[in-house]
Amino acid sequence: MIREARTHVSRNEPLLFELSSPGKKGYQLPELDVPPVDAAEVLGAENTRAEIEGFPEVSEVEAIRHFTRLSTWNYAIDLGVYPLGSCTMKYNPRVNEAVARIEGLAWAHPYQPEPLVQGALEVMARLEAALAEITGMDAVTLQPAAGAHGELTGILLIRALLESRGNPRKKVLIPDSAHGTNPATAAIAGYAVENIRSNERGMVDVEALARIVDEDVAALMITNPNTLGVLEVNIRKIAQILHDKGALLYMDGANMNALAGITRPGDNGVDVMHLNLHKTFSTPHGGGGPGSGPVAVKRHLEPFLPVPRLKQQDGKWVFDYQRPLSIGRVRAFYGNFGVLVRALAYIMAHGGEGLRNATLDAVLSANYIRKKLEAHYEIAAEAPSLHECVFSDARQAKHGVRTGDIAKRLIDYGFHPYTVSFPLIVHGALMIEPTETESKRELDAFIDAMISIAREVEENPELVTKAPHNTRIGRVDEVTAARRPVVRWRPK
Q: In this structure, are 317 and 175 located in the same domain?
């Protein structure tokens, strides 16, 4: 019987353990040119082990083909649009990589003596200055390792300032449209969390805010634009309400890709904010790292920034540790230097006008998608969209199809899914962020796929609820996979 023949593109790849055959090896060692030594005798039997039982035995070509085939499974921004809302999966220009690989920068170590890394320190100083200018803030620390880490740093700065005034206060207010990590950040910093409901336009209800802000409130953590992709147009009024009661305004800068070059949070009353370099400034997302979450502050918070701080002394860049009001270190090393280099390269390559144009293009792309899809999917908020648009599955749910089903069907069309079921205030959310780097042709292909799926839902909903159909592994039992994951290979 002739078995079905498929290319490696559609064939599921076995594990190396499953490819293994006794006696195969992918190496050839030369004859030993020194006297043989019994490792157990030299090191002690307790420090040695026998051959690893079950270790895969494969040839060199089998190993090479195995990992090459696996590499072709990866979906990446270099292959197509990556519409994950709230993630800003934009293309990373190759010039960023070229600059980061300059020998003197690529090999710089955080613990090298300051006189030997003046160029690297100047890179950091220039990036701090650029981010301060872009955000309208007075000072920046590059130390936090990621966005959520920057959040925590920002709230600790607020706490330190309030403590210096004699009262750290008790609670932090968080709108229901804020980024999902904000409540955890406030709790870790020792604050009680009080949520604020959005109004019918998907924005902070200013009148409701004014009623609940009192002397127990330390800060409001706001995401602007919020997770609905909506601009908080009353941001100055919000800041004034807080400041009148001695509270501070923290802004989550995750969505700065909608503001850069257009408006500056510091000019609108924001006291402290973090930035995500991997989002707005096109550094690698890196599969969870390395990241960088710089924190920008107004002048009254600057004395509390983490040590060390960069400063000039006798014409040289040095680290200043003599800062008695500082919250201390928040990280052992000083940021992820390679990421910092990439961000500065991106900013300098674009300039002010280029950053502004990138923002305008991001907003245009999101609104193009919104306009094309709003006849097929329910828009979540009537207010204008900025860099991302959020739909719900309300129309598709009438046919028994939910947002997760639509996302899985989208894979069959060759696209990475959008962000599923977030933000939580939108039931059955479809969160789409195209960024500024996608062409109209790519956007149209994505739009056509989404419209086709909407039609399939009406004509043949089972086709969607059982998707994906073209992947190596079909729909899995997600509950079982989460509760009883298989994380290691066992022989049958």
A: yes
Residues 6+ apart with CB under 8 A from 146: 276, 289, 291, 292, 293
The reply to whether 492 falls in a domain is no
Task: Give me the number of domains the chain comprises.
Answer: 3
User: pTM for the whole thing?
Assistant: 0.89
How far from chain centre, in Å, is Cα 151? 13
pLDDT for 174-216, tens place per residue? 999 988 899 999 999 999 999 998 898 899 999 999 999 999 9
Question: Domain range spanning residue 11?
Answer: 1-73
Sheet of 171-175, strand order: 139-141, 295-297, 272-275, 248-253, 217-223, 171-175, 192-196
Say if residue 272 is in the same domain as residue 365. Answer: no
Bond from prior residue into 225 cis (ω within 30 degrees of 0): yes
Beta-strand ranges (E) seen in 197-271 are: 217-223, 248-253
- Whole-angstrom CA distances from 153 to 49, 75, 146, 163, 223 are 46, 33, 10, 15, 16
131 and 151 fall within a common domain:
yes
Nearest alpha-carbon partner for 352 in 231, 262, 255? 262
